Amino acid sequence: MSEPSGTSGASATKSQLIEPRILVSLATYNEAGNIAPLIAEIHKVIPHADILVIDDNSPDNTWKIVEELGATDPRVKLLKRPGKLGLGTATIAAMQYAMEHNYDFLQNMDADFSHPPRYLPGILAGMSKYDVMIGSRYVKGGGTENWPLARKVISRSVNTLVRFLFRMPVQDASGAYRCYRVSKLRQVRLDKIRSRGYSFQQEVLFRCHKAGCKLGEYPIIFENRRAGASKVNRNEAIRSLSMILYLGLRNFFGRERD
């Protein structure tokens, strides 16, 4: 005899089928050539996810493409800002949005296809054990595509320095391809974050670690952007390295406390 509807067994089965609420965040500035195909690829892999695009008033009208997509697809959301306010503030805005709208996970990605969506299932699967999952270039199976030797050496050296100064058990602390457990983000001192540029990724991971988040890594191959120009800026890289040294030394000598 089949079990009557409304029984505890049916309720348990139904609860097992409930998908976590996932918000994917993409910070954009002049990504008109990438944004629509990237959103489509993300939804092929995780169709139930919402996507929040934080656009800094792109002159190439990236925001307009997102606005048009959102008019027909409620999963696509746009936060348009008045100008270039930096990657760090865009990520914090996405974190605040995820907390305010009660998502379970916030998945952050670059908007230029350097973070291939095919890795999303593996990263999200790791959230069963961890509070932050990093799409990692530096664990077994990970790597980079067509990077010059100098860039590889600099990236490896910065990550080694971060592990030493911040005492974080991760191989890749500088990548933005990450998933965060939103309930744990509520415990992170986001108000103490000083970084606005490239050092933001290291600092926000450090703040998560200080808040007791369990950090995990999943191997990815970091690919070259498909369209548009790189936003890498030498002066910003120098400022960010200075911030890493400042925060890292404060932590090393016990002066950086939450």
In short:
The protein is α/β, with parallel strands linked by helices and 258 residues long. 40% of the residues lie in helices and 16% in strands. The chain contains 9 helices and 9 strands.
Task: Summarize the structure in words.
A seven-stranded mixed beta sheet has the order 3-2-1-4-7-5-8, sandwiched between helices. Strands 6-9 form a two-stranded parallel ribbon. Helix content is 40%, strand content 16%. With 258 residues, the protein is of the alpha/beta class. The protein has one domain: Spore Coat Polysaccharide Biosynthesis Protein SpsA, Chain A. The protein has nine helices and nine strands.
Q: Supply the number of structural domains.
A: 1
CATH topology: Spore Coat Polysaccharide Biosynthesis Protein SpsA, Chain A
Shape: globular
Structural class determined from secondary elements: alpha/beta
Largest sheet descriptor: 7 strands, mixed
Find the CATH superfamily.
Answer: Spore Coat Polysaccharide Biosynthesis Protein SpsA, Chain A
* Helix-residue proportion: 25-40%
CATH architecture: Alpha-Beta Complex
How many DSSP-defined strands? Answer: 9
pLDDT < 50 stretches: 1-8, 11-15
**Strand content bin:** 15-25%
Cα distance, first to last residue? 58 Å
The main sheet orders its strands as 3-2-1-4-7-5-8
Taking all Cα atoms into account, the compactness measure Rg is: 19 Å
Question: In terms of topology, how is this protein built?
Answer:
Blueprint: H1 8-16, E1 22-28, H2 35-45, E2 50-55, H3 62-72, E3 76-80, H4 87-100, E4 105-109, H5 120-125, E5 132-136, E6 143-144, H6 149-166, E7 178-181, H7 182-185, H8 200-210, E8 215-219, E9 221-222, H9 234-252
